[in-house]
Amino acid sequence: MYAAVLCAGTALAQAIEFESNGLRFQTLTRDGVTIMFAPLPVQVRDYAVLQVAVSNGSPSTRTVKPEDFRFIREDGSKVPAAPARQVVKEFLDKGGRSDVIKLVTTYEMSLYGVGRIKSTNGYEVRRQQYLAEMTSAKLKAAAAASAIAFIPTTLKPGESTDGAIFFPMQGRPLTAGKLVATPGSAQFEFEVGGLRHPGELIRRP
Question: Where are the domains of the chain?
């Protein structure tokens, strides 16, 4: 299903929406690079969380990182995505078992709802690396954040990755506005509506 979505995004070269496992996804292709995302129905501490997948279908190497993403409210104010290291540090300093369960359960629901993404450095790969030998609750919380957080990644042609991007929203969900991503020279813009219920985007007329 994931491959079909990527092909559709490539052919249309415009944002398309689809629903999977109760979540509303959007996907867009620019210059051979495809970005797909869905708001997750969970607030983790002060963050609104997006599940994001990126696939490089271009003939050149591309680098993508959380700092490439920002949310622009309707009033024009901007909320940049938090760097992965900042999120992991917060989980290490303040994380607990409830944060781990909420984050991992929700993210896996989103990821597996659209089929297994064969990422070269995605959640599955990072989870095995980070969670193998963790024992304390705080370290497990930090490890879960490390595995799930979208990290700076260099993608060769044909490679893909996934991860969660965290927006500091003081515990509130994303309101109406735009999600903008600028990995390299390409710019991706997605219209985001208010949330009628967690994870669902309101379609604009």
Answer: 2-192
The C-alpha atoms of residue 104 and residue 156 are separated, in whole angstroms, by 27
DSSP assignment of 112-167: HHT-----SSSHHHHHHHHSTT--SHHHHHHHHHHHHB---EEE-TT-EEEEEEEE
Q: Tens digit of pLDDT per residue, the chain (205 long)? A: 444 444 444 444 578 888 877 788 899 999 999 999 988 887 777 888 898 999 999 999 999 999 999 999 999 999 999 998 888 777 777 766 676 677 777 777 766 655 545 666 677 767 666 655 555 666 666 666 677 889 899 999 999 999 889 999 887 888 889 999 999 888 999 998 754 444 444 444 3
Find the radius of gyration of the CA atoms of the chain: 16
Written as six digits, the tokens of 18 are: 């689809």
- pTM tops 0.85, yes or no: no
